[in-house]
Amino acid sequence: xxxxxxxxxxxxxxxxxxxxxxxxxxxxxxxxxxxxxxxxxxxxxxxxxxxxxxxxxxxxxxxxxxxxxxxxxxxxxxxxxxxxxxxxxxxxxxxxxxxxxxxxxxxxxxxxxxxxxxxxxxxxxxxxxxxxxxxxxxxxxxxxxxxxxxxxxxxxxxxxxxxxxxxxxxxxxxxxxxxxxxxxxxxxxxxxxxxxxxxxxxxxxxxxxxxxxxxxxxxxxxxxxxxxxxxxxxxxxxxxxxxxxxxxxxxxxxxxxxxxxxxxxxxxxxxxxxxxx
Length: 277
Description:
The chain is an alpha+beta fold. Strands 7, 8, 9, 10, 11, 12, 13, 14, 15 and 16 form a ten-stranded mixed beta sheet that branches. It has a six-stranded antiparallel beta sheet with strand order 2-1-6-5-3-4. It is globular and about 55 Å long.
């Protein structure tokens, strides 16, 4: 399938997109990104994703001289060119072309790239996934930076364990998975970490779906609580509401997706099914 990209407003086939070697995002990792997808041919929560993208830029000190309308028009144009109903968008912002290797440019580089939505096997939702833990805290966790060095370094360890992701913790408190947020159920009480995390858009939607059904607590979560939980799941753009049934080789409760998790997954899927209709 053909995909396209926009580099500072210039549109081209994705496989032809290039930036120069003195981009400070390449030389120093000074960059950030965001990632969203469509349902029913329409971008899901696009405004919230772009708000987070702009907030990350402000926190990182990278200028963002682009209007939301201009970014949306580029996304719509790219989407139409693909001819594909449902796709994902990767937005990348770097500090631009540096004159000396350390000083950001006055003008950043904005890349918008269309991609296929990653396939997630249905059995992961019906059987749950296995993850491992790692004592680590992302630098500037509230920013969706391009720094995924820790995850990439752990890729062989994750694969060897038969896992699909890693859960970070530090000083006895869990924070987030490498690319998604964490939730626990204690009975009918839903708990999620409130600090040292990227506040995901799917996390936000899930909390909105849950607030009228369950007691919800956003607070510190200890590592010990993982083993006391009745259900654990993770939320993300591609994972949606994904049951976690095993951590570090140990089953959570009975080792099967819980009824509350599956209920929230059903509510999420019902909501997104109606988009674009």
